[in-house]
Amino acid sequence: QVQLVESGGGLVQAGGSLRLSCAASGRIFSITAMGWYRQAPGKQRELVAAITSDGSTNHVDSVKGRFTISRDNAKNMVYLQMNSLKPEDTAVYYCNAKIKPSIAGYLEVWGQGTLVTVSS
């Protein structure tokens, strides 16, 4: 009853920027936290950035100072602004959300992923 849809991925030159968007839809009472993960070929999926219900954020060390996570609570959306992109940022980026579909319910939901490719 809940789905996440990512958009904004693509091909960009090193040093360029992209803005990823993730829209949550369906039966949503509240969203506890949202985050962005990424997975490169042959690598483990890793947390890139997360934002909690109180607005606090964290970013993995490799993207600090370059990426910024933000949210729009009214639209049930989360964004990842990616600046100064490097080839090592190339990966499929996944949106994740911890959602309460009702007062008593709880779900963790993943998006389908969006590919970011950074050329040197």
Describe the structure.
The radius of gyration is 14 Å and the shape is elongated. The chain is mainly beta. A hairpin with a 4-residue loop joins strand 7 and strand 8.
Element-by-element helix/strand order: EEEEEEEEEEE
Low-confidence stretches: none
Number of E-type strands = 11
Number of helices: 0
Shape estimate: elongated
Main sheet, how many strands, which sense, barrel?
7 strands, mixed
Backbone CA Rg: 14 Å
* Helical fraction: under 10%
Provide mean pLDDT, rounded: 96
Structural class: mainly beta
Relative strand content:
over 45%
Distance between the termini: 41 Å
Helix and strand arrangement:
Elements: E1 2-7, E2 10-13, E3 18-26, E4 30-39, E5 46-52, E6 57-59, E7 67-72, E8 77-82, E9 91-100, E10 107-110, E11 114-119
Parallel strand pairs: 2-11
Antiparallel strand pairs: 1-3, 3-8, 4-5, 4-9, 5-6, 7-8, 9-10, 9-11
